[in-house]
Amino acid sequence: MHTIFVTGGTGFMGRKLIAELMSRGHAVRALARPSSEGKLPPGCTAIVGDALQKDSFASSIAPADTFVQLVGVTHPNPAKKDEFRAIDLGSARVAISAAREAGVRHFVYVSVAQPASVMKFYIAVRAEGEKMVRESGIPATVLRPWYVLGPGRRWPLVLVPLYWVLGLLPPTRESARRLGLVTLEQMVATLLAAIESPPEGVRILGVPEIRAGQLTVTGQ
Question: What is the reported pTM?
Fold first, then answer.
């Protein structure tokens, strides 16, 4: 069994992941802003703090062996490029530093599929976050979904026929697979598998791997 520290645990992915982790017998500590503790699943240890302020939570990470970084701007769009750097990248920098100092043995980072011709600022920030993960020296799993379908996030289903067609055409087949849709259930299942089978180096899981539940190890 693992002890896991989660940031972004009050979000739509974090709540479901924490509930599943606890149902499997893992101990979970989750960072929450003041007055947001009630959004965490029952039984989770709430750590009140600020994801952008390391001193507000760093001393509470131990004895966690795994750190899951889920903080990010909700409903990303090109107009939020300043928020991407301030929140997504800022929180990743703080989390990686705090995890390293706490002796965490596995860092899990949810990034984004890349490259792509849209959302360039968002992708650039997440790619920079991945670079910091690699440079930290902590064994890590990086997930690269494109769009995660879930409650309130179903509109891309109208694109499924288009994805099917693009997946048949040789010039667009690879992009259609790399930038495909995944479900919240697939993301949580992949996160669970990654947490329960930590890598020795850095493992990258793209859309095809998330859909198939394959834990593929790549080089640093």
Answer: 0.90
